[in-house]
């Protein structure tokens, strides 16, 4: 996630499920006096399902006027990435690639970093939720 989209990272706490909402919307939680929607990125991208565990975190991101939380297994911290190191998303891969800004190759496949386009992610999530 680009740092301009990062507000903070929280421990996953109590969430209130919303009836008749899309499966990728886990619910809402209170955060600094506001109601924060929380997304399951794995469900959203059809890659599985997040499990809320004691080490689970919620990444709080912003795009324009919209703020949302995204479930994260762990948060490793900030990493400086040179623009010249960012490769375009793979062509012909699954639908999840439309939400990528690019890819940064690491020394091993496990260290490859996918850069999410948080603005596109929120825009698509809102469209899917409203279309219901």
UniProtKB/TrEMBL annotation:
A Gene Ontology BP annotation from the UniProt entry: chemotaxis
Q: Name one Pfam family in it.
A: CheW
Boundaries of each CheW-like domain copy?
1-127
GO CC list: cytosol
Gene3D superfamilies per the record? CheA-289, Domain 4, SH3 Domains
Designated name of the protein:
Purine-binding chemotaxis protein CheW
Q: Organism, per UniProt?
A: Stigmatella erecta
